[in-house]
Amino acid sequence: MANTVVKIDNLVKRYKELIALDHLSLEIKEGEVFGLLGPNGSGKTTTINCLLSLLAYDKGTIEIFGKPMTPTSYDIKREIGIIMQNVAVFNELTVMDNIDYFCGLYITDKAKRKQYVEEAIRFVGLEDFTKFYPRKLSGGLLRRLNIACGIAHKPKLIILDEPTVAVDPQSRNKILEGIEQLNRDGATIIYTSHYMEEVEQICTRIAIMDKGHKVAEGSKEELKKMIKNTETISIEVAEPSAEVNAEVAALPHVYKNEYTDGKLHVYCSGGKHNLIRVLDVLQKHDMHIGRVYSELPTLNDVFLEITGKALRDKED
What's the topology of domain 231-295? Predict the structure, then answer.
């Protein structure tokens, strides 16, 4: 059984009248890529800051690697890598010097540090940019530098807070592939993002927060089973008659159907062979059928149904 890397128990954080974290509990196991999701103001960033002992909290406990986390837990902090949404590098230092500086905060042996820096540069694909200053880098390359600075010392726990904001698709893929490789190499990852497709791709378990609470937790498959909609069927067809609509609505597992933009949309909750049943009804009435789509719920559908909110582009 995997060891517990992070344990947050009954955490409460208040800002005067505002309760930012309301009795939050989380447990993250060794080797997980743990997605922490929530709309703006849900408490994700506050959770991370409390986890790192950058914020004092009012109640609860936090343990990392089985030890209490405090502002002076330097032995624990040496094993943590942090890549925040806002790029944090020195504009006066080159790419290599930036990585060397941040690695040097943890690794004092010069030979080992040199090796680690070179490995970090190769890992993020910045071999051709080692002598560049940050202001000369594109947004995607700057994000890669930010990641290299956070992981060069080979931490066991890596926290990535919106690492792919405003980067080009090529750099985003490079970053995501790098995160998966870090995980394969043994790191436990905490990942926050507003891009649901990223979370679906890399996260093994996910918690959704809202208003300081954990409102759902599980694998993406488990989360998708929590919502009403399990399949959305869309069929290009002439507008159905009232009789056809009534027959479709009466089918097993159909809880809603509507006609918009030249398509019949049928929403199902559970069951199998829903598409076949809908097509049987249409064919019985000799309706000409165009393109047919059957979509399973996405993580974004889960998020919207559970929180009632859309993810936005800014962090809380």
Answer: Alpha-Beta Plaits (3.30.70)
